[in-house]
Amino acid sequence: MQQKHRPSGKHEDATVSVSDADKPLEAPKDADAAKDKLGRREYDKALKRLHVELVKLQEWVVHKGLRVCIVFEGRDGAGKGGAIKAITERVSPRVFRVIALPAPTEREKSQMYVQRYLPHLPAAGEVVIFDRSWYNRAGVERVMGFCSEDAVKAFLEGTPKVERVMVDSGIILIKYWLEVSPEEQTRRLEARIDDGRKIWKLSPMDLKSYSRWYDYSRARDDMFAATDTEFAPWNVARSNDKRRARLNIISHLLSQVPYREVHRDKVKLPKRQKAEGYRETNHPMRFIEERF
């Protein structure tokens, strides 16, 4: 798919902060060539630099009252949750809000399809991240038969119009699709079966979805054809190497929202007050058992 770039005319008053952190990782000459997995030490070092830039971005978003909406989509096991966690673990949850809606209620099913997503769109000074989004209709709902083909057709025709309104209103809309190979998806889903930390990620729906790889491929292709627009393009991240994918996504994100570092006075801790006769309480505090 041809790479497209988001126009940035509405944000010409800002300039991107330049540092080693927000320079994108060099792409391989052969995009499909196999790479060694990125080591933990190298990953942590790069992620720390990117986290510093995300904090600068956060302060700029608040300072300028920007509204940023980020959509994450991809197959089960593609690494959406890990990428979102990497983005949000060092920023404020009051600015970076993650939205992961459950299955619609009976009342929501009777509403206009996009209606339940609209209240979660960002207000000034917010970055909203959708862990799956309105694109459920183009993916899981279509493949698993939860909606009719007429509903899917209406969705694919109407979504660019809705996203056009969002962008024209000033929302910075960034859409990511995480692309994982069938072999890597199998390895990741199998790893969840016997891992008590991950078993919650493997639902009956995941198992049904796993068997329909090519149905999802066709649904993805139709979705791209209808909704990969100049004003709201799909940004595809190869995610077989989770660490590289996370770094590449954060680096790309930083390039999509022009920002500058907001001036902040140097922080200096004040002196503590004097005890002035205070004595530690004799109350028998209920300390937790120290097992470690």
What does this structure look like?
- This protein has one domain: P-loop containing nucleotide triphosphate hydrolases (Rossmann fold), CATH 3.40.50.300.
- It is built from nine helices and five strands.
- With 292 residues, it is of the alpha/beta class.
- The N terminus is likely disordered.
- Helix 3 links the parallel strand 2 and strand 3.
- Total beta strand runs: 5
Structural class: alpha/beta
Largest sheet descriptor:
5 strands, parallel
Mean of pLDDT: 89
Number of H- or I-type helical stretches: 9
**Rg, Cα atoms, Å:** 22 Å
Side by side, the strands of the main sheet go 2-3-1-4-5
- CATH class (first level) name: Alpha Beta
Strand content: 5-15%
Unreliable spans: 1-33
Query: Could you say how many structural domains there are in total?
Result: 1
- Report the order of strands and helices: HEHEHEHHEHHHEH
Fill in the CATH topology: Rossmann fold
Percent of residues in helices comes to 25-40%
Query: CATH H-level name... which superfamily?
Result: P-loop containing nucleotide triphosphate hydrolases
Under the CATH scheme, the architecture is 3-Layer(aba) Sandwich
Span between N and C termini? 52 Å
The dominant shape is: globular
